[in-house]
Amino acid sequence: MEELWPPPTIEVADVIRSLCQRLLTEADSLTDALAGPTLVAQKDPALLSDASLVEEDRHVNRSDVVQWLTSNIQRPGRRVEPYVGPRTTAYLGDLVPRGIAPDLAGGWRVALGICWRRWLKECVAHCADPDLLVEVLDVSAKSMVQYALDSISALREARLVAATGNADAEAIALIQLIASGAPVAEDVAEVRLRYRMARWHVGLVLWVDSPRQVDALDEAIAAVRSAAAGRSALVARACATSRWIWLSGADTPDLQPVEGVMARADEVRAAAGRPGRGLEGFRSSHQDALAAQALVIRLGSDRRFTAYADVELIDALTKDRASARRFVINTLGPLAEADTVLRQTLLTYVQCGFNTTRAAANLYAHRNTVERRVSRANRLSVVKVEDNPTHVAAALLVLDIAPDIVATSPN
Q1: Distance CA 263, CA 364 (A)
Q2: I need a surface site. Which of 29, 63, 178, 291 has the fewest CB within 10 A?
Q3: Which structural domain range is residue 210 located in?
């Protein structure tokens, strides 16, 4: 690339290299600081609502951070070549058919502000010479701003290339329209998707953490389709790491076979919506599944299968992780960090309508054992189960989905 400013002095280069080496060890925390604000700045609700795309966007942010830091370790203060790798290219290609057009410049503008502030603090903390500090800031500002401009251009060019290379673009675009609530005639949807709408549907999202696991994802999808024998299935590629699936039939689809498949799929996770009928059911079940997926990712849960009907209350409680953590601690107190068996027993007891015999049967334990565990758990809990069973059960469910939420420091 053409250099647009003179090379820095040896002293300036040494400072920039040292600071970049230090910050490279903090690439993950810097990426975390960028992820939320840059996503909002891109101003596309469809992007915000898909947890797999959110994760891919985060990966792009991390790649950008690492590219600038490593380039400035090798060639301090020089113009940095944007990195648009295979994963970024695939991500941009997945946005196009879904009609997602993020504001790339807006995202980069926010990212630049956050990164510059972090860089400024690092420079001031580790560069005591005022004159040298001015030179470091002058050179690094040129490099950082130009990197943002070059990256925006490279991403826009990659997006234009992607727009011409997806054979399934029309079907995916239609699915995105339906999912977003746009008015689409049922008969038109059926013809173009070759999938009957006037039936019961359940929406699923299957995903993996990395494109390297896509073979496992494909195997899981095949197993789900096989387990749902006798039902129609519609599968759409949401992004490199996730797939949307709808299963339909004359009656409400049974999710138990799907849950069985996921129990055997080591690298794949699934989220399921509540069943619904017709075009609206197709849409609402899919939105439920996306919400369940977002909950699992937000809480860092390792659950293989999550049905939104089971976690709807938890979804509402955990939109903010720090607030969810406070709710659990304030409700359960010492019980939040007690033996898992105690918490599971108390939760089962509440879910069984305070029936000790039923709870014992569900837990494969003696009735007296269940009574002792419930009594001990209730003594540890700040809020007693008899005073507010709803709060206690909700807090226990949060811990069941995200066992480490109490141990994790709030953001």
Answers
A1: 21
A2: 29
A3: 169-309
